Amino acid sequence: MIAKLIEKIQKTQAPVVVGLDPMLSYIPQGIMNKAAAEYGESLEAAAEAVWQFNKAIVDNVYDLIPAVKPQIAMYEQFGVPGLAVFEKTVAYCQEKGLVVIGDIKRGDIGSTSAAYAAGHLGSVQIGSKTFSGFHEDFATVNPYLGSDGVKPFLDVCKKENRGVFVLVKTSNPSSGEFQDQQIGERPLYELVGEKVAEWGEDMIDGSCGYSDVGAVVGATYPEMGRTLRRIMPHSYILVPGYGAQGGTAEDLRPFFNEDGLGAIVNSSRGIICAYKNDKYKAFGEAAFEYAARQAVIDMIDDIRGVICR
User: Fold this and answer.
1) Which of 64, 105, 174, 255 is the most exposed place for a label (fewest CB within 10 A)?
2) Number of domains observed in the structure of the chain
3) pTM metric for this prediction
């Protein structure tokens, strides 16, 4: 799967993933009103509004980018209707040719972890038929429970040609409470990075030199990113924290290799809420999807200006 992602990154010349993380406060009132007129004030109305919002954004950016990253919590908050829209969004993005990174941050042990892996990346057998639940291409995985929590995902990835991005050094301010703690003479995030490299050793795609086991490392910690890039030479790095969280294009340089590969950068609010930004206010709420498109173009230009020079 990593080869497919890299092929799309090279084709678009855009190491960018758009985070489809909708909150109701992000959605224009016109969309909300139309959904409420059909479904009343209900979970179904909220889910329908999210779907229409997502669809409009995807329709206007899919030709510019290689991938999207829907965050499942934003859908789970609307219960079963929200989860149905999560799956509908995944399917629609894949129909548009996009790689889908399911931001699920799952991590448990034994049969529980195996069930998560089957539900999001694999399949289940029901009688004589096989079904794929949410069928993302990649999923984010929390490694805190150790190899017991990660290996079930790796087993499914090998079987189904899927991939994972393992949380290593996250972009949030309090990540250091645990991730930066010294174990002996080294911080914990370095040891996790070494495990990511180890887990991915037998999952390196010979056509591209990268593994289906990637890592999540925040743009807000560029020097740590430089160290982790060295520790995980074959791991693609999913980089959150650009834009709204304070990460800049210059901060991204350590995450990339000299050929411009090795990382893909996420932006969520900065894209889907662009119409609320003063820079794009001329588009107005009614043209939110065109504001999102322009924000993607600007992000791509910003990143290219750093990694291509």
Assistant:
1) 174
2) 1
3) 0.97
